[in-house]
Structure formats: structure tokens, C-alpha cells
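Exercise 7. Given the components listed, write out the predicted structure of the assembled complex. Treat all entries as one system.
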Amino acid sequence: MYRYDEFDHAFVRERVVQFRDQVDRRLAGQLTEDEFRPLRLRNGLYLQLHAYMLRIAIPYGVLSPRQLRQLAMIGRKWDRGYGHFTTRTNLQYHWIKLVDVPDILDALADVEMHCIQTSGNSFRNVTADPFAGAAVDELEDPRPWCEVIRQWSTVHPEFSWLPRKFKFAITGAAEDRAAVLFHDIGLKIVKGPNGENGFRVFVGGGMGRTPYVGLEIRPFLEKRHLLSYIESILRVYNLYGRRDNLNKARIKILVNQLGIDKFREEVEADWAASPRKDEIDLPESELLRIQSYFAPPDLVPGPIVDEKVEQRRITDPAFANWLKNNVRPHRVPGYCIAVIALKQPGRTPGDATSEEMELVADLAERYSHNELRVNYTQNLVLPHVARADLVAVYDALVRVGLAVGNNDLLGDMICCPGLDYCNLANARSIPIAKEIAKRFEDPKRQELIGPLRLNMSGCINACGHHHAGNIGILGVDKKGTELYQISLGGSPKDDAAIGTIIGPGFRAEAVPQAIDTIIETYLANRTGGEDFLATWRRIGPAPFKEALYGAV
Amino acid sequence: MPSVVTANRLTDGIVVYLATDGSWTEDIAHARRAETEDEVKALEADAARAVKERKVVAVYPMEVAVDDSGVHALSVRERIRASHRTTLTEDWYDVPL
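Answer.
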């Protein structure tokens, strides 16, 4: 992974000193809340319902065991012993004291972490394929490019005052596991006309109040021109993006108002006219330097079948279930990618206690070549596990209750913190997720249903990605009552789609039964090996509407 | 309907209510209640002073219901704030609302 150089260290420490002074001045009355608010937001510090919330950037979801242990320590010392992993692959602490924040930022800087640009109208944490560098279907590791963009975009003077926040995702694999098409800019590494790798560039995707699937602005961009080209995209956005209405300020609105062809024309014209392309684009030597930090671990290919694993699979159905759903193929034979689902029935999706973080850090050290990832679906990933070690990893997870085998099944819900924590939320989401988890607790039933993405948000800002859920749930406030609107048919993958609202919302207590009805309708209608999305696309909304609301 | 004033404590962000003795309490039951328009204005003036003195931030008045069992926040959001914590990481536990 990337390691800070002297400049990075000095820069992050300087920011901590600066913020310590700002907190001191706030407490001494030299800054009012109105003056302090934009300063704290520049450092990922929000004031939420119950306390301050601090959001820590986990660059493209990559963590070292040392960093995860430090996050565990921070949770224990300065929060309430846990943290919450988000759909931006960041970590949030929900019970932070303002007076402690400078010390926390210092502790983060000790392990090369910070909270810069995790809030405000800035370039947010770049996300990536959580299996990067390990996936069997990968053309090229996207992490060096994520790092390039991170360095380029951090406190970039031209883009420090964007009309609105800006989100970026990159994948280098055949399968989109990073919801790339739901980002302001999404990049897919693809083969070009001469067999070389480059970027397929998408723009204007996003969730929130007005969801859009990203549109292709360029089918192929030479890698060496990445920075100058995205700078042109950003410049056009900065120039024309609306600043008069917060709800219309994201680049997706601009792209869709201008139309992708006109937007492309503007970007290409800006790019063609840019006199400093060579200065902006990254020199080959710098790219090689950054790439060297992401050299793959030295893995010795091994047998693809392990006797201990096979025996355990036969005798232990829970292990077989975990193996099937949470273990994914690795580019090196004899190795696997193991997903640690933070989705046990009864727990808050995405939460991890300090003890759990420490256990996972230990496992990464012992079994995954010191590498860890955070998935945008709010799980953790051990990217390089020898097949022969899978039983040991599983048994260690069982001991702390993290061995649930529901990755990518109904129980693997994405869920935002909702009204239990968030100042923006209109409705609770965690208790609804728990009730749904209770209803579908039986792993056999989840297995029967098959792959299903159920996403839930407690407000229209869509941190829980409800638009992209095969089943999406949105909490709204209707005259003081929490109501839950259900949408069907969304997809975060290559066939990205925005879900269709199926009808009037449901009261909280009726949501689990409504989900059950939807699932039963799917099961009654599916043919062959169809997954939920395939059945939905074939039969459309009518059978679901009828099952939920009766014959029209 | 009576009103109280709520805020977040500046130093740690915890939900508080202006109490009868002029302090800020975490317990809504101890909140000073204003019944008339003048009392609400007095409550707000005291709260504004506390903002200036950097005791609290994000101050606002809200109506509450009072019965024999105590003082109750009306909206889901305010019931959650008054409960201080409504979910746990590793437990089915949620505060019923």
C-alpha cells in the first residue's frame, strides 16, 4: 500500500496543528459556531443528533493491520468502543468529543491517516474494487490510479470550492464491484484499440434526490492523459455547475441538463485548448514510483483443492455456506479472497467493535499478507488468504461471531446510520434492518433466495444506496410518521439501474412483511436459475404490486 | 402545549435541555418548561446567552407533552435525542419509540 513520504507526513501533521488551534479558538470564544463549522467540516467533523461524528478517510478502502488496530484504539479510548464502516469505505465514530478531536487526528497521523476531504463540497475519498490486486477477473490493479487521483485532488486549489461534493470510483476488473456507474466520475480500465490498457470514462452518475446512472463520455482514454482529462471535466463542472440551488449542484444535474453530447463537447474543447497538459499529466517515473507501493505480495501458487477445507465443507453446513458466499477466487491458484461480513443478524450493519477490529487485524497479519480492505457494502475483506488457511480463519471468526456466510445475500444489507444518529435523516434505518434480518435469519432461506442486494437509506441523500438496491428501502417523514418507500429493480453493477418505486410507503412495522411478500412473489415467478433482478426484468412490477397492494 | 429548549453541549455534542436551575441537563424530565409566549421568549433569551458563553450549540425550542409519567418529546427525532442512544452494535436492542 501507499506509504507517506516526508511531504505527506509534514502536510498531515501541519493540518493537525492547524485544527488544534482552531478548536482552541472555538473553545476560547474567538470563533463562533458559524465561523468554526466550515473549518471542522474540512476535517471530517460533523455535529449529529447525539454527539460529534468524525469521519476518517480510508483511501480506496485499503487498510493495514497497524491502521485498523489504531482505529480500534481510537474507538476504545475516545468513542464508545466501536466504529461504523460506510458506503464510501470510510469509518465513522459517532460519539466523539470536540475537545478530543486534535488528539485523535494526531493518533491518526501516527498511522498515516486523516479526515481531510471526508465532508464538505470537496473531492471525497476515491473508492475502488475491494478485490483490487487479488481478483481473478482483473485487467489491471486500480489502486495506483486511485492514489494518483488522491494526491492530485487533495487540497487542489482549483477544486477546493466546487459547487458540491465530488465522488470518484475506479475498477480494473471485468465485474463492477464498486458501483462505478453511480459516481460523479467512474473509470473502468479496459483494453484499447492497440491492446494497451486505458480508461473508459463515465460521468454524471449519482444517487441522492435525483439519481442518475453515469453516461459514457469517452470510450477510451490513454492512461497517461488521465489527470489532464479529468481536470477538464472538473473545470467544465466548476464553470457551469449550479451554485444557486444545493439540490441541483451535483455534476449529474449539469450533465443531464446539457446532455452528454454537449457536455462531452465542452470537456473535449477545454482539454484540446489546455496548454499545460504535459505539466498536469503524471510523469511516467512518478507513476512507476506510486505503482511500486502496490507490488503484489509474493504468493506461491498452490493446489486449488485443500483436503481439510473439503472435509469441513462436508461436515459443517455453516462453514460450507461461508465458503460458498464469502470466499471468492484469487488470481493466484491456491489463494482466496475472504469477505468478513459485518452483517450478523441482530447487529447494526457496518458496525465493528474495537475487539473485532483487533481480531481482523490479527487475521490480516497472520493469513492475508498484512492486507485488508473495506468494501462499499460495509464489510471487511482479507484479500490474500491461502486456501489451506481458510479453516483457521473461519474458526477465528466464529469465536467472535463474525463468521456469518451471507455475503451478497439478503442478509448482507447496506444500511446507513439513519435517524438513530444522523442529523439529515428523516427515518430510522438500523431497527428496520434488524427486523428484516430477524425475518430472514434462516441461512437456508437466504440461500434459496440467492444473490440479492437490499439497500436502505434513512433519507433522500441515499447514503444507503437504496436507488441501486435490487430491493431499495427509503425512509421518509410523512406528517410526523416514519414511512418506508420500497423500490425494486435497481442494480449497482455493470447493468446499473435505478429502482422503480413500487407503490405507497409502508409503516415501519409493516416493512419486514412487505419484503417477505416481494421475496415470495419473486420465488413464485422465477424460472430456472434466475436471480431476483432477472425475474423482475422479465415480469415487471405488476405481480409485485398486486401481491403488496391487492388487485387493482 | 409547553415548550422546552434543547441544544448540543459544545465540548462533547451531547443532547441537553435548559433546566429549571439554569444549568443544562441531559434528562428531558428536568427541562424548564415554558407555558406562555413570554416564558418561551425568556427561555430563548437564556439559551442565546448560553450560546454566547460557549456552553451549547444548535439551540432550538420545541413543544413537549406532559402527563403523569413525565415529559415526552413529540417527534421521533426528538424521542431519539431524548433517549441518547437507541441502538447497539451487537444486540437486537433498539429503544422502542
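Discussion: The two ends of chain B are 21 Å apart (CA to CA). The interface with chain A takes residues 8, 10-15, 51, 54, 57-58, 74-77, 80-81, 84-92, 94, 97 of chain B (CB under 8 Å).
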